[in-house]
Structures are given as structure tokens and as C-alpha cells.
Amino acid sequence: MMNEQMIREQICDVCNKMWQLGWVAANDGNVSVKLDDNTFLCTPTGISKSFITPEKLIKIDKDANILEAEGDFRPSSEIKMHLRVYKEREDVGAVVHGHPPVSTGFALAQIPLDSYSLIENAIVIGSVPITPFGKPSTNEVPDSIAPYLPEHDVLLLANHGALAVGSDIITAFYRMESLELVAKTTFYARMLLGGKQEEEIPRDELETLFDMRKNYQVTGKHPGYKKYS
């Protein structure tokens, strides 16, 4: 079992990878991990993910009260979104929010990623809806994602970015990585097809793929066959 220091180091590793992959710029994005039902670690506001170190992470409770923080570091106002996820989903142990460019492009264009055309996507995350617009720093954002959490581990946030959740920080990171791959391959396919939508995997084959989640020991939620466009 990982101790707190190991978890802090893992969060920093994920933050640095997010920055290297171009999912965050300047002080964009935020990451959190649940230590127990009332204790969470989160990234501070106002600092690049490339500069995050273990001691800069903040420890908060379920009401966003600061339990431990170095200097003047404070959580992002978007921590409300993270805490709403933990409230709605007891199985979630980590939340990753970023602005992966192609995925965010689909969010800006109001195009859900709900075409079941890539095998890996069909098995791992299924369709990805776009949540309604919410003003930053308000409860509009957590309220906008809540209805989708029972069925989805990955969401596009309207005019904003993307959210991925998992049982641990690595799983949440992998899901964000899968989302961006789906967005890229979908974009490329539609470019090659002159703007037309790519052909979906036949429905009967999709049901077989959904059942394979158990064989692959894929955790989390899955919407099954669900369309948003």
C-alpha cells in the first residue's frame, strides 16, 4: 500500500506528464487524490504543473478547508468540482482536470465524442458527453457534471476542457490520455472523410466489446451504448 509521500510523488509525476503532453499551459488544470473519506491532496492554484513538488501539494477536508499547506498556497476554486465527484462516486480515488487540445476542441465545437468507432474507446470509456456551461469558481460547474457521473468516468466540459476520474491517480491519468487519443483519431478520420462521420462498429459487436471489460478487468463506470449527438 502506498504511503502519503509516495502518493504526493505520484501526483507530481502525473502533473509533469500533463505539462509535457501539452494538456495544461501556465497554471491551468488541477489534480486531486482521496486519502480517506475526509482528507484529500490537491494541487495549488497559480502554479504551473511543471513546477509542482510534493511539499507544494495541499491537504484539505471534504468541505475544502485547508488542513496543511506550505506558505500561501491555496487550492484552485475548481476544487469544488473535484469534491463533488468524490461525493457522488465513492469508488473514485483521484480526479484529473486539464485542457488536452484536441479533446477541448471538441468541447468548444460542442461535438460529443460519442461515435463508437475505435475498439479501445468502446471498451474503456464509451461515449463522452459535453456537460453544460458553468461559470468558473461557482457551483455551476460541479452541478453541471453531477448528472453524468453515475455512468461516465470521462467528461468534456463545455468551453472549458476535460475531466477524468479513476480509482487512483494513474487510472485517472490513463483515462485522460485515452480521451485525447480518441479525440485525435476521430478528428483525423473526419478530415480524411471530408468532414463526414466515421463508420461505427456494428452494434452486436459493440455489445461483445462491452462484455470484454470484465476480462480486461476494466474498473469504473461505462455508459454502454449511449449517444449525445
From TrEMBL:
One GO CC annotation: cytosol
Keywords: Lyase, Metal-binding
Pfam short name (any one): Aldolase_II
Molecular-function GO term, any one: aldehyde-lyase activity
Name of the protein in question: Aldolase
Xref: SMART domains: Aldolase_II
One GO process term, biological-process aspect: pentose catabolic process
InterPro entries xref list: Aldolase_class_II_sugar_metab, Aldolase_II/adducin_N, Aldolase_II/adducin_N_sf
Domain named Class II aldolase/adducin N-terminal: residues: 9-187
Upper classification of the organism: Bacteria, Bacillati, Bacillota, Bacilli, Lactobacillales
